[in-house]
Amino acid sequence: MKPSFVALLGGMLLLAGCSAAPAPESSAPPDVSQGPQPLNVRKYEQDPCALLPQAAEVFNAVRNRKITGAITPACTWNDSKNSTLTIGFLPVQGGLATIGQNLSSTGYYDPAPAIDGYPAAYTNVLDNRAQGGCQIAVGVQADEAFTSSVMLFPRSPSYGDPCSVALKAAQAVVATLKAGS
User: Fold this and answer.
1) Strands 74-79 and 61-67
2) pLDDT 10s per residue in the chain (181 long)?
3) Is pTM, for the whole model, over 0.85?
4) 20 to 30 Å CA-CA from 85: which of 5, 23, 127, 164?
5) What does the H/E/C string look like for the chain?
């Protein structure tokens, strides 16, 4: 199975709220208070590829595609080495707090730095960070979040720290949302 498909599938399962088993009590989600003011995401749900106009600078993207028929609105960018970055929304699904409750026993939910005051967590249903994968979820409304997911190939210069790439893309998305709100 292609690494980008595995990352996307894992992210989509998280987005849909599916899990193989409940997370252990000890991995309770951190406080996910709402950000400074809810961000308007409606127009980007229809065109998620517009969220990252600076994709070439953030990810060295050479192409993108809107994912249609998916569980959630999403866009995937590829770099010249075929590593992937996917930005997707979780509309009206309980926001960041719900994500932390829907983990599998193989997943993770770790605090991430807030992005311009908006709460964030590194999270996915499968922990593939050692294999070049990472996902960060950012709460932009009380009941909505977006994810920034990367799947980097070993020849990527950021392979050893994929979460830095996911975070950088999430920061760019928040900047776009704030400018459009």
Assistant:
1) antiparallel
2) 444 433 443 444 344 443 333 333 334 444 555 678 889 888 898 889 999 988 888 888 888 888 876 577 899 999 988 999 999 988 766 777 777 676 666 788 898 999 999 999 999 888 999 999 999 999 998 888 999 999 999 999 999 999 999 999 999 999 999 998 5
3) no
4) 23
5) CCHHHHHHHHHHHHHHCCCCCCCCHHHCCCCCCCCCCCCCCHHHHHCHHHHCCCHHHHHCEEEEEEECCCCCCEEEEEECCCCEEEEEEECCCCHHHHHHHCCCCCCEEEEEEEECCEEEEEEECCCCHHHCEEEEEEEEECCEEEEEEEECCCCCCCCCCHHHHHHHHHHHHHHHHHHHC
